[in-house]
Specification:
2 domains; two-stranded antiparallel ribbon; 11 helices; 4 strands; elongated; 245 residues
């Protein structure tokens, strides 16, 4: 499985599975089909109400221009407004992300959008498809220039894979000083655990365990492995903070 290593603000490297060529094509076809449906629905509506009797040519031309502008700017506007997703990307559970670990800037979205001319328009989609197929991180030319790529966003769903599972009233905390952690710290641990179950990169668990143990100045108890340690930290935090509330 190809992955993209993204460094978080806490300097933890997390591997995300990249979106393949098939997922990209499927997302594109969904978006294109949506525009076709709108186009044919508009034709049907105009034919039904009698376009020539109720509308003049200027109004028709204005509608065509608006439709064309929406089609041309669709990907750029959607990615800026919906955190790297268009309708097709959302349905395919993929999104645009920056390789530096942050959300792409408007400039990055603009660069990958403008390079659609090279990737798709001027080369009949061929250059973009070839670039995604052969590049290490499944990037088209626009992604390579902008420093972005597409990742899968499907989370792990099994309860044993989730760090923030509920704990019972009878639960006994193991590490009392977890209150030195913050919600963001626990969210990061959760993200690392979820990423491990998607990518099976054990180094993430070891890195996260070392940082948490160092921060809390504790050692892993005998008989407890690194994964159990992180899950216990999360359970302890949830139990203690829920009692505080």
């Amino acid at each position: 499985m190809e992955t993209v290593k993204i460094s978080t603000s806490q300097h933890i490297d997390i591997d995300y599975p990249v979106a393949g060529l098939g997922e990209r094509v499927a997302a594109y076809l969904i978006d294109f089909t949506a525009f076709l449906v709108i186009y044919f629905l508009a034709i049907i509506v105009f034919a039904t109400i009698g376009f020539q009797e109720n509308f003049d040519n200027i109004f028709f031309l204005a509608l065509v221009i608006v439709y064309g502008i929406c089609y041309v700017f669709y990907d750029f506007l959607c990615e800026v407004a919906f955190n790297g997703r268009s309708l097709g990307k959302k349905l395919m559970k993929i999104k645009v992300t920056s390789l530096d670990g942050g959300q792409p800037s408007i400039g990055q979205y603009f660069i990958r959008w403008i390079f659609r001319i090279v990737d798709f328009t001027l080369t009949a989609n061929l250059l973009g498809f070839i670039s995604v197929a052969v590049s290490e991180k499944k990037q088209r030319i626009g992604d390579l220039v902008a420093g972005t790529t597409l990742i899968r966003t499907v989370p792990a769903t099994k309860i044993e894979h989730i760090a923030f599972h509920p704990v019972g009233e009878e639960y006994t905390p193991v590490f009392e000083n977890v209150h030195f952690l913050s919600d963001k710290d626990i969210e990061l641990i959760h993200e690392v655990i979820g990423t491990y179950y998607r990518t099976h990169n054990a180094r993430l668990i070891y890195q996260m365990t070392a940082k948490v143990a160092e921060h809390l100045k504790i050692e892993i108890p005998q008989g407890m492995n690194e994964m159990q340690f992180l899950q216990t930290i999360c359970s302890d935090y949830i139990h203690l903070t829920s009692k505080a509330v």
